[in-house]
Amino acid sequence: MAEREPALTGRKGPGGVLRRLLARPRVAAAVERFAPRSVRTRTTLAACASVAVVLLVASAAVLLVLRVNLQRTVEAGAREQARAVARIAAEGRLPAQLPLDHGTDFIQVTDRDGTVLAASQNLAGHPALAPGADGGRGTFDLGALGDEHHQRVSTLTADTPTGPVTVRVGASLHTADTAEDLTTAALGALSALLVATVGVLTWRTTGRALRPVEAIRSRVAAIGDRELDRRVPEPAGDDEIARLARTMNAMLDRLEAAGVRQRRFIADASHELRSPLAVLRTQLDVAHTHPDPEVRAAMVEGARQDTERLQSLAADLLLLARLDAAGDDGPRTGVDLAELARTAAGARGPLPVAVTGPPTLGVTGNPLWLGRLLTNLLDNARRHARSRIEVRLAAEDGRAVLEVADDGPGIAPADRERIFERFTRLDDARSRDDGGTGLGLPIARDIAALHGGALTVEDAPGGATFRLVLPLAAPDGP
Fold first, then answer.
1. Where are the alpha helices (DSSP H) in 325-426?
2. CA dist 249 → 215, 217, 224, 235, 252 (Å)
3. pLDDT of the chain along its 478 residues, tens only?
4. Rounded CA gap, 318 and 447, in Å?
5. Which 8-state DSSP code applies to residue 135?
6. What structural domains and CATH numbers belong to the chain?
7. Cα Rg for the chain, rounded, in angstroms?
8. β-pair type (104-111, 163-172)
9. Is 324 strand, coil or helix?
């Protein structure tokens, strides 16, 4: 017996209509125009789309497995029925009417000429079934049954005493189709429910997660340039949003501190400029109206000194502005700190300056600004030293160390940071008559910070010591 198990004609699905529609320029432009711009909406749509794709693939796999198993079961029943009929035909005991098993729609046995030799009761008296347009692979003209049937047809060829015969057994797929339709509907309803649930949960969860972000945004939008004391709300926990809020508040702290420093600097600068300008105008008025030439000469000399002081103050203010302008520290080159210290110490002053340490000490930086740093430190020491100023150089742990020590009155521990504030003068050690502007040490510390170093003051026996630490220059390659 030869056995053929034809497959059914597959169902035709819809074409790529949506793909062709989206390919049109106007439709693509409309889709882009109406695309959601909210993070909440985009996140919800992305979650729903992802879950829908997963459910679609999973449902398709389930339906495919179910369909294959159901068809295999129906096919096995039809094939078993066909084999039983073929055995009867081979034994020559083929009756004219054949009984149907459960799930079998029809049985028909024909000879090589197409003459019906036996059939089930529903095909009794009917001619041989004609194959359909698919060449007999599974679709037959079953108009004799009075209805169209979706069937699985098994065809066997058997040798009989009167010649070969063809046995066709059709098994109904109605039960399999019904089960597949019910499963499809159930999976569709369940998938829609799951997608809707994921959408609702994602929408609510995203909204709850973004609520602190919206609070931060609205608070930042409400903060004006004169309301830098306000802060954004910090949510509990240590997630990304909480860290964002803390970072925003830290930034607002820095902005507020910068604003306070700027206002204080402007007020101090205005005060510092107002006093010498008032004195200068008074001196010029007296010199202009006083009849005594000697008095006029003295007034003009005093005016010249105040003008020099104003010039020095304006230069210091300009330098501070440059130091505050985004780290504009000029070109960086190799600098011999020891040579720079000896040059600064050799400048004329009321007291000699002793320099000790290695003959060379290389650092990287702006030589003009580093020279200004050393000059400021030595000028400060000359104003307060009694009889001795010493500059000590050393290299320690990859750092260049420069110390400027004097035997002056020293600096109290409570004032060791305050002296680096702008326009600060200690009452017992500094005055306007000393020629200082109160900007030398702040400028020196800012220059040190721009070069990656630090400037501090330490107490010493019989005076004060300013300690400058800078990174050593990298050694030249081979």
1. 337-345, 367-384
2. 13, 12, 14, 12, 5
3. 444 444 444 444 444 555 565 556 665 555 566 666 678 888 899 999 999 999 999 999 999 999 888 888 888 888 888 888 888 888 888 888 888 877 777 888 888 888 888 888 877 777 887 664 333 445 455 554 555 556 778 888 888 888 898 888 888 777 788 888 899 999 999 999 999 999 999 999 888 888 888 888 888 888 776 677 788 888 887 778 888 888 888 888 888 887 777 777 777 777 667 767 777 788 788 777 877 888 778 888 878 877 877 777 777 777 777 776 645 555 678 899 999 999 888 876 778 889 999 999 999 988 888 988 998 899 888 888 888 899 999 998 889 999 999 988 888 888 888 888 877 766 544 444 455 667 888 888 988 988 889 999 987 777 889 999 999 987 654 4
4. 14
5. -
6. 1-7+30-222 (no CATH), 240-324 (1.10.287.130), 333-471 (3.30.565.10)
7. 50
8. antiparallel
9. helix
Q: Cα-Cα-Cα-Cα dihedral of 28, 34, 38, 43, to 10°?
A: -50
* Structure tokens that stand for 132 in this block: 């359909």
